[in-house]
Structures are given as structure tokens and as C-alpha cells.
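note to self: dont lose this again. the chain is below, predicted strucutre after it. 322 aa total, dont forget to put it in the shared folder this time
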Amino acid sequence: MLLQPRLPAAPRLVPASTLELTLRAAEPRHERLIAALRPFGFERFWQEEQRLRAYVPAAGWDEREREQMETQLRALEVEGPLTIRPVAEKNWNVHWEAGLTPIDAGPFLVKPTHIDAPAGREARFVLNIDPEMSFGTGHHASTRLALCLLAAAHEAGDLRDARVLDAGTGTGILAIAAVRLGAARVLAFDTDTRVLDNARQNLTRNGIAAGSKDGGPEDGGPVELRAGVFAEAVPDEDGFDLILANINRGALSDLLPAFRRRLAPGGQVVLAGLLASDRAPMLDRAAACSLAPREEANESGWWAVRLGVEARGRGSGGEKKP
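---
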């Protein structure tokens, strides 16, 4: 999951009252580092292959929490000095547009809106995504894996007229892809209302109307956007044919029993945002929820799985590389 700085329509400078923390860490470790830093007020992140930059408003930084933060980062095997310094003004639009290029993810081409799709590319497989500060551009392996397993569900005939839940929608990329592949309705939620604004914009960029909890998809389009954690955003709905969740191991492990209860008969769950080392514990967790792997995918140390209701005699499925 790629987390980009928030970019409004007009160029925006990171204010001088922002502090920057730079960590030396390979990209597969970024997700857990981001999760560890968020409680300390860090709200923007910039990912590079071997480095993670984290940004916190100076007014929101509490130096008294530094020791606790460093302890958590050391537990995640972060090495080298942990220096927090004021950041010079930076035009994130320039960095963002220079860093995002079209990328293939399964049958999809994911691209920013300022770049045209190649001639001859089937329109329904072109996803126009501008990330702002949201997860999901296709440039991170976990997003590509989720898209590949979503496409596999489509190829198996499991998406036609399906009712889909997109947990932690981010840019809305998985919700958009699900509609493009035949889903009838998608309920997508996220905890950050700013992220939902970005998802709504991306739906518009892809010609898909979005409803709200009050209006519902029947009044606004096939995708309904809601704010809140799972229990708030999806308090009582069930009967989902497919649940998509590209988050992290801790959240997915906690949510999996609830996901299982919300599935329609024969429903499936696609889990992404997981490292290869998460495979065994997550499959154990799935088995405890009577869910078995139908298909697995891996790329660059990341792993994802498509789960279905466990059936006696079902095999564990094979691995698929996108």
C-alpha cells in the first residue's frame, strides 16, 4: 500500500512548521512502520525503495513521547539514528507527478489522470487514480496482488452482480475495479473522511457515481462510501459475496471473524497488505474462522490470499504470481 502526501487540486507546499523523520528501511517494512508512527501524530509519508520519510505538524509533536516511539521502532528493527528535523518547504505536486507512472496490475492499467492511457487499451481495465494522501495506486505490491486476486474472482464467475465490501478503501481503487468487473453494489469505508473525499473524486474520474449512507447506492450509484471503523461503518449489513481488505496483519486478524459472519453463502474474502512471513499465522486464523485458501499470490516479499468458506476435502490452493 503506497501512502502519498495529500495533494489538493492546486500546488501545495508542505508548511515550514512540519517536522520530518527519516528511517532507513526497505519498502516491504514500510507498512508496519507507518502503523507504528501514526499514533504519534505522523500523518504524511513518502516511500522510497530503501527509505521512509514521515511528517508530523510541529504543533502536534510531543517530545515527551519520543522515547516510547523510538522503543517501538527499535522493536521493528529500525537501525541508525532517529533524527527529527524541520522540513524545508516542498512542492508535493512536483514530487508526486514525477513519481507516479502507469503500471500494470493483473488485467488493469493503473495510471494518474495527467497521463493518457496507451491507444487500444480496453477502457474498463484502465483505472484513473490520483492518490492524494490515500492508499492504493498500484505502485505497491499489495495493491497489485489485491487487484490480481479480484480479477481471479471475476474469471471464476464470482463477481457478476455481486455485493462487495471494500474495507479500508483508500483511493477507492478496489471498489472501482470491482464495479468494472461486474459487481452490482460496493460498500466502501475508511476511517478518514479526507481519504473518502479522495475516493469519491477517483470514482468520478472513472465515471462511477458514489452514494452515501443516507442516500444509498440506489440514489447515487453502485458504490456507497461510509466513514468510520468497521463496527461503525457496517453495523448490521451482511450477505456480502466478496469482502476486499488491503490493510495489515493486525487489523486483518482482528477483523476476519467479523468478515466471516458477514459473508453470503459461498462468499469470499480477499486479504492483502500482508508479508510473506504472515502467511502461516493468517492461514491458521482463517482456518479458525472456517475459511480456506482458494488462491494465493506473492510478489516482492508480499503475500495475498483469496479465501472461501471451508469445505471438506478442499485443497489449500496454489500460489500465483501476477
